[in-house]
Amino acid sequence: MSKTTTTRGKKAAVNKRIVVCTSEKGGTGKSIVARFLLDMYLANNIDVVAYDCDFSNPQLWRHYNSWVPGGVKTIKFNQWSFSEIFKKDLETLNPVVALVDLPSGVGEYFQDFVQEMESASLGYRITMVSVLGRGKDSIIQLKRLIETCGNQVDYVVVKNLYWGEEKEEEEIFIKYNESKTRKTVLELGAIELNFFPIVSRVYEAIDFSDLTFTEAVNHETLTLSKQARLGVWIPNNESELIKGGSFLRLEEAQRRDRDTLKKRKI
Asked: Is 245 exposed, middle or buried (CB count within 10 Å of its CB: 0-12, 13-18, 19+)?
């Protein structure tokens, strides 16, 4: 491989991302984070292809299939043909972001997936989005993820504040904050973000009508009170997730947010 090709590959890897939302245990809020990310990509006109690999609860497909050009693709992550289909899509569609919502308990396949993506030399860098609940299981799954992938990927650790709405973030995630796993993942350059909870009755209204978050803000099935709550919840989480910058391919949104803050100060 020539020097020029290598340089181009590294540059492309910064600009294009495979964003994988993962959790080793169900119920951490992984799918709602994946949905919110997809909502942001669409709202910011970022060229994205999306994959829902959670056949038991395909939320990404159910809420966003008709909104993503070409639809949300459904396929089992541990299916033999997944990597081949995925690589072919990246080659032919060449999206800026490929978003993958995984089911829980597929960590044993991560190493093969990462190695296959690297060997394919398609110019994508992988970001593992690990959504934490408040229990020890979340720390264990992150530890396994680090042991499997090492510095071959980038890490975004999302603390789901649903698990302690009335408590401070430091209190909810005290075991994680004091863990060796946290120290290790931060040494690998991880970005930590919070994800704020949505009021249950608002979430249920969105879920019942299979709406996207952006769509729900002005949707007739939601009362004005629910729309108002959603109108606060969305920008709060947007402000958090754009801190993921290039790891989540939201650096343009991050710059716009900074420019807006500067203008307000002026």
From this structure: middle
Give CA–CA dist 226/217, Å, rounded.
Answer: 8
Cβ neighbors of 8 (< 8 A, separation 6 or more) are 123
Full set of structural domains in the chain with CATH: 3-199 (3.40.50.300)
pLDDT for 137 equals 81
Cα 104 to the center of its chain, rounded Å: 14
Whether pLDDT at 13 is above 70: no
The pTM of the whole model exceeds 0.70: yes
Going edge to edge, which strands form the sheet with 191-195? 73-74, 48-52, 97-101, 17-22, 125-132, 154-160, 191-195
Tokens, residue 117: 């993506």
**Number of residues that this document lists for the chain:** 266
Cα–Cα distance for residue pair 65/50, rounded to 1 Å:
9
pLDDT in tens, 195-216: 999 989 999 999 999 999 999 9
SS3 sequence of the chain: CCHHHHHHHHHHHHHCEEEEEECCCCCCCHHHHHHHHHHHHHHCCCCEEEEECCCCCCHHHHHHCCCCCCCCEECCCCCCCHHHHHHHHHHHHCCCEEEEECCCCCHHHHHHHHHHHHHHCCCCEEEEEEEECCCHHHHHHHHHHHHHHHHHCEEEEEEEHHHHCCCCHHHHCHHHHCCHHHHHHHHCCCEEEEECCCCHHHHHHHHHCCCCHHHHCCCCCCCHHHHHHHHHHHHHHHHHHHHHHHHCCCHHHHHHHHHHHHHHHC
What tokens does 206 get?
A: 């969105």
